[in-house]
């Protein structure tokens, strides 16, 4: 009997200890704006699983996809003020706020998400831009090169005349140069805009054909290879500072890996999405002529000059940043 009591006491003590250590762990909230199926949320779940595994459960991550905690426009502020511990921002939704990292949104003909994501992370690491000084940057990545997805066919650039297309960032200006009417809004508002007919299509990467089911209404896809959208995963600074050195190391060690994982995932996923769209909705893919691609390229030149002027105004060495981006792009493309 005495032995049993001791055993019970011991197991009770152990249970309390385990509960206490679980309580001592940290739960981080992670806000995201698009629906759970989309690539920014797929990478979020991947990161959550890795962090929980590598910290042996010291960190638990509670994810909030679909703007359930913060929406695309209040994400940056919401993380700074601690409404969420971690958040995902598409930087093109914040004109003028990211003078350095917006370089990745320029029309420089990225062909791979993995390459663009590596380049973005390297640039961030090298320059540590002060536009992110108020937050901890967890990782960065981009969308795939942007294409036109529309209700009516865009078989030649002339077909764009007056067409309302959803986009954000630098693509809006290229669209206006092409005679289309760019409508700026976050991706997560696009389903409603398409459904109401406010826009007749969108410019983004092909993953959204499947993940938002846009293939159903946008049966025409035109290969334009327009810019990628840069994303940053940011964390509240005070919450970051409060983590243990071990947890911080796990998160820092994961940054580049996460950027590459996301790039690889999306590069494959755009193929899957396009194939699915062809099978399910018989979408048509339209190719432009070399002369039309040259026209698109020309429209990009003033954007680069404009970015440079704004970067210089923000105290940045624009020429060095641009040269670095192109050199990194060439380096990773050759690998
Ligand atoms: C994007 C944004 C949210 C969910 C899936 C997505 N695929 C490509 C993008 C990029 C984009 O159009 C944007 O607005 O960030």
UniProtKB/TrEMBL annotation:
<keyword id="KW-0732">Signal</keyword>
<protein>
    <submittedName>
        <fullName>C4-dicarboxylate ABC transporter substrate-binding protein</fullName>
    </submittedName>
</protein>
<dbReference type="InterPro" id="IPR038404">
    <property type="entry name" value="TRAP_DctP_sf"/>
</dbReference>
<dbReference type="InterPro" id="IPR018389">
    <property type="entry name" value="DctP_fam"/>
</dbReference>
<dbReference type="Pfam" id="PF03480">
    <property type="entry name" value="DctP"/>
</dbReference>
<feature type="signal peptide">
    <location>
        <begin position="1"/>
        <end position="24"/>
    </location>
</feature>
């Amino acid at each position: 009997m005495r032995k049993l009591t001791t055993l019970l006491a011991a197991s009770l003590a152990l249970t309390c200890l385990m509960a206490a250590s679980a309580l001592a762990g940290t739960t981080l909230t992670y806000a995201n704006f698009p629906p759970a199926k989309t690539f920014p949320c797929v990478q979020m779940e991947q990161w959550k699983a890795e962090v929980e595994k590598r910290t042996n459960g010291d960190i638990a991550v509670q994810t909030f996809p679909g703007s359930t905690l913060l929406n695309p426009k209040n994400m940056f502020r919401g993380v700074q003020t601690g409404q969420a511990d971690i958040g995902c921002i598409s930087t093109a939704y914040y004109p003028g706020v990211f003078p350095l990292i917006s370089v990745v949104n320029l029309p420089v003909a990225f062909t791979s998400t993995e390459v663009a994501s590596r380049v973005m992370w390297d640039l961030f690491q090298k320059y540590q831009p002060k536009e992110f000084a108020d937050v901890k940057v967890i990782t960065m990545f981009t969308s795939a090169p942007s294409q036109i997805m529309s209700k009516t066919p865009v078989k030649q650039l002339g077909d764009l005349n007056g067409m309302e297309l959803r986009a954000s960032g630098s693509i809006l200006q290229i669209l206006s140069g092409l005679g289309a009417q760019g409508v700026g809004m976050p991706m997560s508002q696009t389903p409603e805009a398409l459904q109401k007919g406010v826009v007749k299509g969108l410019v983004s990467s092909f993953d959204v054909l499947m993940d938002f089911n846009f293939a159903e209404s946008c049966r025409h896809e035109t290969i334009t290879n327009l810019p990628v959208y840069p994303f940053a995963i940011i964390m509240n600074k005070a919450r970051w500072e409060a983590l243990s050195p071990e947890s911080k190391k796990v998160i820092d060690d994961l940054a580049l890996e996460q950027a590459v994982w996301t790039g690889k995932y999306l590069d494959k996923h755009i193929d899957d999405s396009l194939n699915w769209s062809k099978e399910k909705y018989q979408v048509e893919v339209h190719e432009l002529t070399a002369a039309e691609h040259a026209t698109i390229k020309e429209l990009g030149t003033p954007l680069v000059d404009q970015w440079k002027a704004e970067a210089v105004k923000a105290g940045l060495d624009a020429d060095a940043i641009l040269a670095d981006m192109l050199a990194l792009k060439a380096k990773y493309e050759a690998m």
